[in-house]
TrEMBL record, chains A, B, C, D:
This is Chorismate synthase. Homotetramer. NADP(+) binds at R48. GO terms for biological process: amino acid biosynthetic process; aromatic amino acid family biosynthetic process; chorismate biosynthetic process. InterPro entries: Chorismate_synth, Chorismate_synth_AroC_sf, Chorismate_synthase_CS. It comes from Flavobacterium aquaticum. It comes from the Bacteria. HAMAP family: Chorismate_synth. Belongs to the chorismate synthase family.
Length: 350, 350, 350, 350
């Protein structure tokens, strides 16, 4: 129970089902005196919103954040920041077809088993819509650590991937295309591929790479709350995530120590950075970078077998909105969770 | 600060440096009335111990656990279980060569930067010796959830890997060989390769796969404390871990939804299990399985450049004990952390 | 930072300033499947509301709770319950007179010192209006532990006090009078006294006694989270509270052991109950009872010296709403916090 | 479960039964670089120890603290400080007489009901011996906040009390007498009274007053973690405590606002200090003072009725060690818990 709070000193608690009155949250522990950039917050919300381009779902969500407390004359006051994001269209859809059925690889079945009841409208609490509140928290967190730069981007879709180290990429290109891939040639391939997937009524997975730059040395709290452990938890808490690796990651497991060790420069920086900016669970001032794997979304516009609450298997035609590839939309969510973790450890380290 | 506690209802707090008087911990929240199997606990410690075979370090560690509280007439009493593991050889080694230097890809530098001081003897708190306390906690956790089966094994060393699904493996073979690989042909290759690495004074990374069976439905606390998110954090908190994936993992990111979705059987089980036993952050009763990536250990028996606390780069010959591949020894640690997570969520779900 | 969450498994996080858009909160960890009585919740809000009788402030507050999540078809779903209470009159008052001054025994000065900024309108976060969110949480908590009976009442105002043990009182009379004192003769004296105080533009303190009946044996988590320790913290977190005692309380400090010990009956109940239903931090099944001391409210309708932010002492005429005695209104708040504590430990003990 | 940790950034977790191998704990979150005064720590232990004077129990406890980690070359390293306090005499006493009986107003009955099992030797975990670990933590906490002065003393025993404000007392006299009362005339009366009580085989309660001076402005985290709320919880977690009041306390509940408000001086200090150094849950820089009520200890050297685990009431002669008044020995425990709270909030406020 009570798994809806994230963070230690900077705590984000969220609430909200996809088709309830509103989503929202409370960000507690935000330092006082920060002049918030509300346009930036709303712009971050816009990045997460569905229906932004031809490749993604066409559902209109307004996603307008209303701040209710913790801010006075434009500045944070140190008291908890309460906010809500009204669900404008919560009654428009028809969910009767999923009321009595459990869709494959959705959370329908486990929610009903665990709680004995579920809000079946659009996935309820397990909907990706829940992440809207995370983006609000992350957009404020970014302003707490304004000198630290966090950039996430889509590094692969299906089998298509960027074949370059992140250092060779121009992060300013991330938002220039619908798939949020800074390598434009790869972006085009991804976009075309997603259009094919969409026509098939199918979905496709992908990965996001996140790079955090200008991190102070010393963030992280061994032995259990190592910086990368908390980053990993943060990422794995995002819907559809199946894996997390930082620095050399799974490739590092194939390497020898003589290849993997990062030699020091006299100033304490390292020549290579297979460590991914974290050693012994503590940031060493080098770039932190990690990669997050997203499975394909479970909602298909195809016929699929579903389980009924009477224990029958029936065939059902998928309908409703359709995200052939949720990965581009997850980019601001990855950044938001990274910002929350880094800001929290930044405050812990003060 | 204060990052040395793991868990919510079942809390393990640990202390101890590799060369202090003793390591130890407190397991708080263990249910009362469990008749503990102390031989099992000591056997688990034995599995973690260095010096078990020709391929690993020869340092002798006794690793004898002494329980100080929380147990009466062989049973847990519901009060905190305090325990220590004395460091018998803590004064025998000579660490003067690392006192003023920071070894590449060790935590020396970041500890000194963060805390302004470090216990330089053998890595201090950042030593893998710290995990001995985790194994104690995990060995008790396993007894809390005695009907749930947790099996971890080495699934790859360097480029050598088991080329079979875990369902085709015989877990009873895991402890039959020095590398803890249940596929004996692969085990032999791994063992031979590690011997080569050892001769080179080098080290090699690898992966561990963990399978958790007979898990009740309903474990996991969305949205932030999803079961796999906490498992991920637990694994990433282990020394040298660079990545975590569960179910389809990073491969899932290359798949289509129509391939990835796990169709239901009428009884709620699923035909495939790409979900890895967890949907929406909640266990669905199918096997939970995940994979953990370990980088090669940083301590080499080779000449390496190190940074001095005067800001100079000097060459230093690595010496002391040498683990060419720490992955086999990490198997019981992976199991211990998995047991702690599962037991905690088990108690939360009651 | 981040001190706006209360509870372990049942967590209430609140936000809101007295003159912001809205107050509200998130109750996380509420078990699923409880059919909520919304009229009861609103009735509890009504009890806390100012302007209920001639003796208290005349400000109109609507205090209408809007639930935004966690409830589906009238039942709790196990997901977090988000709620808001709009501040309807937030712009009507004039607070310019306190913008640059710190009123004696208010939190103005310390908030400004701690945070460097404060929402000076009506006390901001330090206003008793904050407790509205607690009452919502408590009203739900009462429904989680519906078999446990919690009754609080005003046991003294100034020097006037009920001169009877609580066993001789009829709790059904508590709500029959404006001061919430079940002893009607004492109630009348209190009421008359408060009217005198009101005419003087002064305020008066008092105490609340709370009795919790039908508590299961075994609630409480030694050694730090003893049941009475958490009850004490809960009460001390309410505005204007200066003291807490349970069972024999401060009187017990004058007694001998031979007088104080509660002898057992064969069924495990005790003949006397100076322990106050808690022994060693764990409920023993007897009535839990405790007393809470409230200081007089600091806002007077009198001339008082105030400190300016320029470091000058000036005289200022108190104005605005005026609660001559906040104690009757605090009765539902005491009950709410007690309910939150008991429900939390009830869930922990399952 | 898991109620054996205290604190947020500075976390003390303790373990140990009165007659187990050892007591001990882990202090996590202690800042690095503090040169610890070990003689001071041992002297604090000595203050808590039984058998210090003719008025108290004669049991010999060595109470020697052994530090096992977190300290290197005399300085804290920022890693968790593990420590044990061996129980030297754990096998010498005969507890067969209480094995099957529940003594009145002890925790025997509730422990057995809650856990289904108890370590009946000397009270087990519910023994006051548990507080030894708190004194270790507190002695280190005092060194974290070395500029803040914490003085506790016995302010009443039974009906005998100090009839002076604390400002008129000389704290250097506290340790000059067996009852730890700085008013020597009152101390003598208390001491004589306790001797009478001892002869009767009876026990007597009392109160401790604690004064914290030189506190920085700004400690405390509203709304739930107000400074006095956490102080209250800390005190109420000590064995035998029945009440807590700070500043004007229960007397404040009898006062008018015009009497109770603390007028400011131009420098932000206040002329009076009925607030007790805390306003709105935040320290205002004035002295913090509070009072703690202790009931008489339940162990009498008299015949008493006890309950057997067969549901019979039998008469039993109390024996074993006998503390006629535990209050003097509780003085260092009150100080230790106060130090832990203040140090924690001090670190939170940095």
């Amino acid at each position: 129970m009570a798994g809806n709070t994230f963070g230690k000193l900077l705590k984000l608690t969220t609430f909200g089902e996809s088709h309830g009155e509103a989503l929202g949250g409370i960000l507690d522990g935000c330092p006082a005196g920060i002049t918030l950039d509300f346009e930036f917050i709303q712009a971050e919300m816009q990045r997460r919103k569905p229906g932004q381009s031809s490749i993604v779902t066409q559902r209109k969500e307004e996603d307008e954040v209303q701040f209710l407390s913790g801010i006075f004359e434009g500045k944070t006051t140190g008291t908890p920041i309460g906010f809500i994001i009204p669900n404008n269209n919560q009654k428009s859809d028809d969910y009767s077809h999923i009321k009595d059925t459990y869709r494959p690889s959705h959370a329908d079945y486990v929610y009903e088993q665990k709680y004995g009841i579920r809000d079946y409208r659009g996935g309820g609490r397990s909907s990706a819509r829940e992440t809207a509140s995370r983006v609000v928290g992350g957009a404020i967190a970014k302003q707490i650590i304004s000198e630290i730069k966090i950039n996430a981007f889509v590094s692969s879709v299906g089998e298509i991937f960027i074949d370059k180290p992140y250092q060779d990429l121009d992060f300013s290109k991330i938002e220039s295309n619908a798939v949020r891939c800074p390598d434009l040639a790869t972006a085009e391939k991804m976009e075309n591929y997603i259009k094919v997937i969409k026509k098939q009524g199918d979905t496709i997975g992908g990965t996001i790479t996140c790079v955090i730059q200008n991190v102070p040395i010393g963030l992280g709290e061994p032995v259990f709350d190592k910086l990368h452990a908390e980053l990993g938890k943060a990422m794995l808490s995002i819907n559809a995530v199946k894996g997390f690796e930082f620095g050399s990651g799974f490739c590092g497991a194939k390497m020898k120590g003589s290849e993997h060790n990062d030699s020091y420069n006299p100033d304490g920086t390292t020549k290579s950075n297979l460590s991914g900016g974290i050693q012994g669970g503590i940031s060493n001032g080098m770039d932190i970078y990690f990669r997050v794997a997203f499975k394909p979304v479970a909602t298909l516009i195809q016929k699929q077998e579903v389980l009924t609450n009477q224990g029958e298997i029936i065939e059902q035609q998928g309908k409703g909105r359709h995200d052939p590839c949720v990965v581009p939309r997850a980019v601001p969510i990855v950044e938001a969770m990274a910002a929350l973790v880094i800001a929290d450890y930044f405050l812990l380290n003060k």
